[in-house]
Specification:
The structure holds 2 protein chains of 2 kinds. By secondary structure, chain A is of the alpha+beta class. Chain A contains 3 helices and 27 strands. In chain B, strand 2 and strand 3 (about 140-145) form a beta hairpin. Chain B is elongated, with a radius of gyration of 32 Å. The chains are: A alpha+beta, B alpha+beta.
């Protein structure tokens, strides 16, 4: 018996030693995505990437789980950047070769000053919620004051508006309780100081000091239904467009200080807006392969006939007439006449494409559902 | 061992004339005992016939391992997850979008729909109405079945079909990456929901094979591949049926060999008969104790038969030698009994106890194997050490048999003389050096020895089996894996879809996907992301878990069955592995366990592990833990028995060292043949040692006898070889023959067991004949042995 016991104990000791060895694998606890740095991985360039941009010669792409990767050899090899957050990032923009911004879920805004190698968080949904609430509260105080001094005839309308504001405030407060969940969907900067971030349910924020302070810009955009703002783009001549859910299009001709609603040619959602390279010319595109073109700052639109019905997500123009739009199901549309006509291509893997940049020899770097992909000028073959 | 009262303290070998009490008891009541044995055989034979094959999944897994405990606890919740069949219908030429293919597919789909055991509402194929395409439009969603309305096989409707498949996420998953085959997915009911009857895997498997044969014949451009647990078990059961054939071959081979050895009909038939009786008794007792025969313990009757024969051969050999001296059958039988019953009982006891060490392994099939083998060996003590000499005492060895021994003896004396040089002072050191070298080589090569299954596909079957080829086909053509680990996530009721749970699952999934050996993972978290994306007009910028519970809830309104249990307190995280090698499993479960240890809280608990990989990981852990313990006990037991019998540490070393060398070489062989230590092969290690010790015991017993008679070591060894060397070599060969047919078993683990036992039986024999005398040269002191024995005799 004694022998048995000792042996069993010996076995148990051995086993627990092995287990102790096993448990030294270090793992981070499951933290909030806003406070958890993106994990180092070799898979970032094969997983969902949502946007890609040039930072000078460098190419920077963003995607799920806080992945930001960059390449200095035109997309052959990628390095993962150091990122303090780990949610899906949705857009990236570099106004200068070194200064860049990326936005994503939970309202996060990230900034880099070294061309995308390291990133810091400038703003997130928690602060945004407070900004929204304080702005609504300010509006309420203003309106209550107005109402108190208003003539009887106007009181009724003001009371209604006040009621609406109250509801909005309640919503905003309950959102704050839920925690930050609304995604930002696109970002644009005029220069290293001045830019906008837009997103779901009408989110729009503005900075003019390189992101040190951000301002809630929602009251500058006439979006009473709170439609998603999907894409922001500048066209040649300086005008800014925002394209959004259910065909909404907004125009600003004063660098985004004021926005006006543009009469939309389409009831479905737009996911992208793109200057063609010609003055005041813009393309808006989105659901089920719909592409519209305006050459008068959105006063009139023409449907561009396209032989494809996959949703278009994003586009890129070289300013000389060549335009590439990419979309779901491996859809690549190529125009050589500034978007008057497109030739449609479908990649064999039919994976969704989310964004693209142009390389030498008209080659393309595509990003999407399965990471990065180098492709020829029509998006399908091997690069030339 | 021997009865002290009749021994009178004398060394048993020094008084060959004495009649032990046992011998008198048996040989004075021959008729009575034979009649009793006859009735016993009839009774046990009646029971043996009723023994049932039995391939219960639960008996093959370590039920007490926490993974398995967790798995069984949640079995009801996860039921649909594991039990399904996948039928890939492929085309040889062209692609699947042809009228002829789609027609055949429809017929096969219908046939499978009507199969007993198929959960019809869960059936999925291009022809089932639950495979739909979906498209986001300006107004919302638009969709339909992938088979277009008004499908008529025309090129137009086939083109329509192709388009529909491409925009159906489920449809595209049913179609091979190269569009040359499509899947019919059929979940199964373990129990018939109406009758409650258990699903017959072998029946289902047969029906599926019929469907395969029928349509491959009907449409020569079609090939059908079927996988799934039910098919695997069906194939296993079909494989067991070869056992009968193996049994016949084994008996025939042994018979031929016996006759060649004994040149005596009785000397051939009686050993066969008594050994078969041993098998009958063993099976009868097993049935009386409530056991069945599973694919592992079905090996035991072969072992029992072989062990029986090997002991019977000793009897035949001894009788022939005595008869050659001129004794009558009865006297020869008594003398043979007297010589053999002690080494026989010791050898068989060490076999039996060796087998019983298998009880350390907490896996029921292995325990069953231990019990079955233990019973079988115990039975042999009666049938082959008692019944056999009794029967032979009536019949005797035929004249030709006796003559054969005499002739043979003279002819081969030279050979034995030559072999006796193994104990020569000049040869022995060389032998030891070679043994040391062999040990070194074995130690070196056994470093590659792995725990668990090492090959791709279903480990139970051979690589080139139909099932594994089907499996390889499906893995190659579909983005799928056959090796699945399920991490179960337990939550409070109605909390299994909460954001913290999904977020934690997502975090673990990402860690796992970054672990070598993991192909992909899936869980509610993926589904939530995917549906959230879909609900946002298919925009990938929404492919994220929303911290807003409302968004999650709407994304999980319709969830595939098996991913949420009825009260939403459990959800599985499914890990698809690249293979099921032990190191892969280890690496992956380590990551999951560390994550669970760090993060489990009252909102969620991650527990391992279901799925075939979970079961295998648990089995590997149990085996790794049991292996050394078992080896230790096996050696402890046989050493103790040798010590008791020979009352000498030196003698024990002579017997045990060759065994240890064999064990090491066997492990090296396993490593080189890519056979891992697993449920099937671990018992072999114990069996090999337990049975292998017999040779040493027989040889040493004789050697000691001749040494005590005052012969020099080499002379004594020569006499040993002359008297029992033949029997020992023959034993090695019969034992090896008893299992060699297994190498051709369609069941991989039976083949592995066959190869290893074959090797161990032969090599243990070589070890006993070649290495034992060399060791004896260094360890034994014949003078002192004789003096000691004399002193003992004088004292009494």
């Amino acid at each position: 018996m004694a022998k048995w016991l000792t042996l069993k104990t010996f076995g148990a000791v051995c086993l627990s030693l092995t287990l102790a060895g096993a448990s030294t694998v270090a793992l981070a606890a499951v933290g909030n995505v806003l406070d958890t740095a993106s994990m180092e991985t070799t898979l970032a360039s094969e997983k969902l990437l949502t946007d890609v941009a040039h930072a000078g010669k460098r190419i920077v792409a963003v995607g799920e789980r806080g992945h930001i990767i960059y390449s200095d050899d035109n997309g052959k090899q990628w390095t993962q950047a150091s990122v303090p957050v780990s949610m899906l990032l949705t857009a990236v923009y570099f106004p200068t070769p070194t200064q860049g911004w990326a936005v994503g879920h939970s309202g996060v805004i990230l900034h880099t000053g070294d061309a995308g190698a390291t990133w810091t968080k400038q703003l997130d949904g928690r602060q945004e919620a407070k900004m929204v609430i304080s702005q609504l509260e300010q509006q309420m105080t203003d309106m209550q004051a107005q109402e108190a001094n208003a003539p009887e005839s106007k009181k009724r309308a003001l009371q209604d508006s006040l009621e609406n504001l109250k509801f909005s405030l309640e919503d905003a407060k309950s959102d704050e309780k839920v925690g930050p969940w609304k995604p930002l969907l696109d970002v644009w900067f005029r220069d290293a100081k001045y830019g906008f971030a837009i997103g779901a349910y009408g989110l729009i924020f503005h900075t003019d000091d390189g992101g040190q302070t951000w301002h809630n810009w929602a009251d500058h955009v006439p979006n009473p239904d709170g439609y998603h703002l999907n894409a922001i783009a500048q066209v040649k001549g300086g005008a800014l467009f925002i394209a959004g859910e259910a065909g909404t299009v907004y125009l600003s001709t004063d660098d985004g200080m004021t926005w006006s609603s543009v009469k939309s040619p389409y009831g479905g959602s737009f996911f992208g807006a793109l200057g063609t390279g010609n003055v005041n010319e813009v393309l808006a595109f989105g659901l089920r392969g719909h592409v519209f073109r305006s050459d008068d700052l959105g006063k009139s639109w023409k449907a561009v006939p396209v032989d494809a019905d996959a949703t278009l997500n994003s586009g890129v123009a070289d300013g000389k007439g060549r335009i590439v739009l990419v979309g779901n199901d491996g859809s690549v549309l190529v125009s050589s006449d500034a978007g008057q006509t497109f030739r449609s291509h479908v990649r064999a893997d039919r994976e969704a494409l989310l964004s693209a940049v142009l390389l030498n020899n008209d080659n393309l770097l595509l990003v999407g559902e399965q990471g990065t992909e180098l492709a020829g000028p029509d998006g399908t073959g091997k690069p030339m | 061992m021997s009865n002290p009262k009749h021994d009178k303290g004398e060394h048993y070998l020094l008084t060959p004339k004495a009649e032990p009490f046992l011998e008198r008891l048996i040989f004075n009541n021959r008729v009575l005992i034979l009649v009793f044995f006859l009735f016993l055989t009839l009774f046990l034979g009646y029971n043996a016939v009723k023994i049932q094959p039995n391939a219960s999944f639960e008996r093959m897994i370590p039920l007490k391992h926490p993974y398995i405990v967790n798995m069984l606890k949640h079995r009801g919740d996860l039921d649909n997850l594991g039990n399904f069949i996948r039928v890939a219908v492929g085309v040889k030429d062209g692609d699947i979008f042809t009228k002829s293919y789609m027609d055949t597919l429809k017929h096969i789909n219908d046939d499978i729909f009507y199969l007993k055991g198929v959960n019809r509402s869960g059936l999925k194929s291009l022809w089932t109405p639950n495979i739909r395409w979906l498209e986001v439009t300006e107004q919302g969603f638009q969709g339909g079945t992938v088979i277009p309305d008004g499908y008529n096989g025309s090129p137009h409707s086939l083109e329509q079909l192709r388009q529909n498949v491409l925009r159906s996420p489920e449809g595209i998953r049913l179609v091979a990456d190269n569009f040359k085959s499509s899947i019919i997915y059929a979940p199964l009911y373990e129990k018939d929901p109406q009758t409650g009857a258990k699903l017959s895997y072998s029946e289902l498997s047969k029906r599926l094979d019929q469907i395969r044969a029928k349509y491959e014949k009907q449409n020569p451009n079609i090939e059908i591949h079927i996988i799934g647990f039910a098919k695997l078990v069906g194939d296993l059961i079909a494989g067991i049926q070869y056992v009968a054939l193996f049994a016949v071959i084994t008996i025939l081979l042994t018979g031929v060999f016996l006759f060649w050895y004994s040149r005596c009909v009785a000397g051939t038939m009686i050993p066969l008969l008594t050994s078969i009786i041993a098998v009958i008794w063993q099976l009868g007792i097993l049935h009386l104790l409530g056991y069945g025969l599973d694919p592992y313990s079905v090996l035991v009757p072969f072992l029992v038969f072989a062990i029986g024969i090997s002991h019977a051969v000793q009897v035949v050999n001894a009788m022939a030698l005595e008869s050659a001296k001129g004794f009558d059958p009865l006297t020869s039988a008594r003398l043979a009994f007297r010589q053999l019953y002690i080494p026989g009982v010791v050898a068989l006891l060490s076999d039996a106890i060796g087998f019983l060490t298998l009880l350390f392994i907490e896996i029921d099939v292995i325990k069953d194997l231990a019990v079955a083998a233990g019973i079988g060996v115990a039975v042999i003590i009666i049938t082959n050490l008692v019944l056999h000499p009794l029967v032979m005492s009536y019949i005797g060895i035929s004249k030709s048999g006796v003559r054969h021994v005499q002739n043979h003896d003279e002819k081969v004396d030279r050979k034995w003389r030559l072999m006796s040089f193994f104990s020569h002072p000049g040869v022995a050191p060389i032998s030891l050096l070679i043994a040391l070298l062999g040990l070194g080589i074995g130690m070196y090569y056994k470093q590659d020895l792995k725990i668990g299954d090492l090959e791709r596909g279903a480990p139970e079957l051979r690589q080139n089996s139909v099932y594994n080829q089907d499996n390889a086909y499906i893995i190659k053509n579909y983005s799928t894996s056959a090796d699945i680990l399920v991490v179960m996530v337990e939550t409070p009721k109605q909390q299994c879809t909460s954001y913290p749970v999904l977020h934690a699952m997502d975090a673990l999934q990402w860690k796992l996907e970054n672990t070598k050996g993991v192909d992909s993972t899936t869980s509610l978290a993926n589904i939530s992301k995917l549906v959230t994306k879909a609900l946002n007009e298919g925009n990938f910028k929404w492919y994220e878990l929303s911290p807003n519970q409302g968004v999650i809830n709407s994304s999980l309104r319709e969830v595939p069955s098996g991913l949420i249990n009825t009260d939403c307190s459990l959800t599985p995280l499914i890990v698809f592995l690249k293979d099921h090698k032990a190191e892969t499993l280890n690496r992956v479960v380590k990551v999951a366990e560390a994550f669970a240890q760090k993060n489990n809280n009252d909102q969620y608990k991650f527990v391992l592990g279901a799925g075939n990989a979970g079961v295998e990981a648990a089995t590997n852990q149990v085996i790794a833990k049991a292996k050394d313990l078992m080896l230790f006990f096996v050696y402890a037991v046989v050493s103790c028995l040798c010590l008791i019998t020979f009352r000498s540490i030196r003698a024990t070393i002579c017997v045990i060292v060759p065994l240890a060398l064999t064990s090491v070489l066997c492990e090296a062989l396993m490593a080189q043949l890519h056979i891992g230590i697993k449920v099937a092969t671990l018992p072999v290690i114990a069996l090999g040692v337990g049975i292998g010790v017999d040779y040493g015991i027989y040889i040493y017993t004789k050697l000691e006898k001749f040494l005590l008679e005052g012969k020099t070591l080499q002379d004594a060894y020569f006499e040993t070889l002359r008297s029992t060397g033949r029997a020992v070599t023959f034993t090695g060969i019969t034992l090896a023959l008893g299992v060699v047919t297994w190498i051709w078993s369609p069941i991989k683990f039976q083949a592995d067991m066959g190869i290893l036992l074959f090797f161990m039986f032969l090599w243990n024999m070589i070890g006993a004949i070649w290495l034992l005398p060399a060791l004896a040269r260094f360890l034994l002191r014949p003078d002192r042995m004789v003096a000691k024995a004399r002193a003992a005799a004088a004292k009494s």
